[in-house]
Each structure stands twice: as structure tokens, then as C-alpha cells.
Design a protein that fits this description.
With 221 residues, this protein is mainly α. Helices cover 70% and strands 0% of the residues. The protein has one domain. It is built from ten helices and no strands.
Length: 221
């Protein structure tokens, strides 16, 4: 099997894993079409809005894993046995998994915004940048109470930290740095409507109170 065929195999398998519509399936399990409520998005934030916190945690975990597992088991493991190798296999798997989440074939290519799945794929490639990005997410969310803003800042921080580490020690590798930059761009583009609402001061926020029925956010992963 040559490099082109190997890369295509890794891409297709990873895309199919990433395209598993977690939020949609969770909604169907609860007897609702999640796309008809809230922000009409299938991500974990909208699942929280419609079905509650516990189901949103499950949705986030599923979206995270469908990013992490393809990178580890399809990209690195399977790719390492094929002509493309583990490094490029991981990159291809990561891109395919995120694209699968954002553009799932099962839902007419209308999926989520890719935050949780992106976090999963980059965790398999650059753990330290992801850790720092996670801290950035918590800080921004604490002060803004906006998931969308925190998510965009987090993916940007991850990409910048990876770039800094690459210049400092070459620890990430340029393919990984480029991938993280692409993922950050995809996530920000998918949040274009949230950006408009943030600029207009109309973006919803999560209240600090435990009551989930008050002040739930407009943004969605």
C-alpha cells in the first residue's frame, strides 16, 4: 500500500469516527431532536441547555474521545504500520476527525463547532499546549462566563504555545504546529456568529448560580 492509499485510508476511517453525531444521538435517546432547540447545534453546550449538565458532560466526553482515539489508534498506530508513518498518520487523522465533527455525512454535513473534538485531537499530539490552553479556557470563562469566547481564546493559546515550543526546542514538529493553527482557524470560523454577538454585547452568559435554567449561554460547541 503506497503513501497516497495509506493516507486516504487513515483519513476515511478517522473522518467516520469524527462524524459520529454524539449530541444528536444523545438527543434521540432522550426523545428529542437537539437541532430543533436552543441554538440548534449538536454540541455539548446546547445539550446542556436542552437536556441538562449531566448529558452535556457525556456529550463533551464523547466528542473529545472521537478526536483523541482516531489520532492514537488510527493515525499513530495504524499509520505507523503503513507507508505514511505515525507522525503524518496522526496529522491526517486529526484533521479528518475534526472535519467529521464539523461536517458529518450523517447529518447532511451540518455538525458542531469542533471545540471538544479539536481538544481531543490536539491532546494526542501536543499535551503541554493543550494543558496551558485548558488553563486559559478556565480563566477566560471565569471572568466572561462565555463558552464561545473561552473556546476561541483556548485554541489560539494552544496554537501559539505550540509555535513557541517549536521555536524553542523543536518539540512539537512543524506539521503539528501547522495542524494546530488550522484547527484554531476552523474553530474561530465556526464561531463567527458568536463573534458578532460578542461585539454587539448580546452574547449569552452562564450565570454563576447553580440554577441551569437561568442565563444559559447562546454559544455552543
Amino acid at each position: 500500500m503506497n503513501e497516497l492509499t495509506s493516507g486516504l485510508l487513515v483519513f476515511v476511517l478517522s473522518y467516520l469516527c469524527g462524524s459520529l453525531p454524539s449530541g444528536y444521538l444523545i438527543g434521540k435517546f432522550n426523545g428529542v431532536d437537539i437541532r430543533q432547540y436552543g441554538s440548534h447545534n449538536i454540541g455539548a453546550t446546547n445539550v446542556r441547555r436542552v437536556l441538562g449538565r449531566d448529558w452535556s458532560f457525556i456529550c463533551f466526553a464523547m466528542d473529545f474521545l472521537k478526536g483523541l482515539l482516531p489520532v492514537v489508534f488510527i493515525g499513530h498506530s495504524l499509520g505507523g504500520r503503513l507507508a505514511i508513518g505515525a507522525s503524518w498518520g496522526g496529522i491526517i487523522a486529526a484533521i479528518a476527525a475534526v472535519l467529521g465533527h464539523i461536517f458529518p455525512i450523517w447529518l447532511k454535513f451540518k455538525g458542531g463547532k469542533g471545540v471538544a473534538t479539536s481538544l481531543g485531537v490536539v491532546s494526542g499530539i501536543a499535551f503541554i499546549p493543550v494543558l496551558i490552553g485548558g488553563i486559559a479556557w478556565l480563566v477566560v470563562f471565569h471572568f466572561s462566563r462565555m463558552v464561545s469566547l473561552a473556546s476561541m481564546v483556548a485554541v489560539t493559546v494552544i496554537a501559539l504555545v505550540a509555535l513557541g515550543m517549536q521555536f524553542a526546542s523543536g518539540a512539537i514538529g512543524w506539521p503539528g504546529v501547522i495542524l494546530l493553527a488550522i484547527i484554531a482557524a476552523l474553530v474561530i470560523i465556526r464561531h463567527k456568529d458568536n463573534i458578532k454577538r460578542i461585539r454587539n454585547g448580546t452574547e449569552g452568559k452562564f450565570e454563576k448560580k447553580s440554577n441551569e435554567n437561568k442565563g444559559e449561554a447562546k454559544e455552543s460547541k
